[in-house]
Amino acid sequence: MAPPKLLSPLFPWLIILTIFLLFLYSSLLPFQSPASTSSSSSSSSSSSSSSSSSSNSPLTKIHTLPTCNFFKGHWATDPNRIPIYDETCPFHRNAWNCLRNQRANMGRINSWKWVPETCDLPRIDPFRFLSLMKNMNIGFVGDSLNENFLVSFLCILRVADMGAKKWKKKGAWRGAYFPKFNVTVAYHRAVLLAKYEWQPKQPSDGDQDGLKGIHRVDVDTPAADWASIGDFYDVLVFNTGHWWGFDKFPKDKPLVFYQAGQPIHPPPNMLDGLKLVLENMASYIQKDIPRKTLKFWRLQSPRHFYGGDWNQNGSCMFNDPLEELQLDSWFDPRNNGVNKEARILNRLINDSVQGTDIQLLDLTHLSEFRADAHPAVWLGKKDAVAIWGQDCMHWCLPGLPDTWVDILSELIRIGLKTG
After folding, report:
1. Domain annotation for the chain: domains and CATH numbers
2. Rounded distance, CA 399 to CA 98, Å?
3. Which of 132, 26, 3 is closest to 409 using CA atoms?
4. DSSP strand E in 203-298: where?
5. Model confidence over 167-208: pLDDT tens digits?
6. Is the N-terminal amide bond of 398 cis, ω within 30° of 0?
7. What is the pTM of this model?
């Protein structure tokens, strides 16, 4: 018999090693299979969700929901809704302080809540908002309707910082500094946005139908009140439109438009002049205001003169908002009513900001309902109505502009989060 091979003592160990490797491989399979299954499943799920819009996954729904449209909705009464501030706010402007002026029905005026169609609109939390805006600044630029907006904002924010101080630096018309948060919120008065100045009639002008002089408007030059503020503010809100009428600039003191330092020929009418200003100011904002700045252009605040214009005994003594079906009869330009200009000007503004990073703050529609929310005859001065008529243009505070603040604060929060 042949002697045994030398390798035979290793044979049992080879068998043991083989068994061990088979065991190890089989034990690893459970850890590998779910991954490949998950990947395959995920791929399949992704393919499925892209071909179907009715996924049941909450996560999918969150990501596919469109951005909330805060501007479309309806007003609903909320008997528990009360203003955040009262008549003692030091930033009030007398004519809009309807609580102090004892405007009738203020409790009902402030019981209305704006309800967007597709989402909820939370009320601003002044503490949380100022914490979000810490070390940042917000500026409003435009006419007195932006000032009306600002006053509401200041009075709301003061609840979170009672040490807020009046602030008028850097050319601001008015504003406030909130020291606990190092935040400034201010208004720069620039009613036409563009630079304009009064030029008395010159002897060389001759006798031109009683002309007393002109208001020269440089359509391509921003007013000095705001031309150099861009580096200071992190959020800017612009508006214009309420001064573009013959009640402000009658035929004996007309607007005359200049570009590149020269009169424009043929001379534009007022609406065409406004269009040139809007286009040039939107271009200036786009080029000269830092890209990181959140920029908003607030569309028109509607007026509610009934029975005549402001100087024709127009009135707004209403107890409730208008109904949806009434809005076109009040505001559609085709009806040629006294309040038609808001929608006309909105079209020009909308066209002018196209192609820029300026966001439209479309507060017009929700404000059209609120014929009940103006100061009307409660103006705080005895002879104000006799001199100026009822105020059916500005808004009572507290009141409708508080809802504007709710919307703006949400858009700022979203803009800072996604910017």
Report:
1. 74-200+210-414 (3.40.50.1110)
2. 9
3. 132
4. 213-222, 235-238, 255-259, 262-263, 294-298
5. 999 889 999 999 999 999 999 999 999 999 999 988 766 666
6. yes
7. 0.83
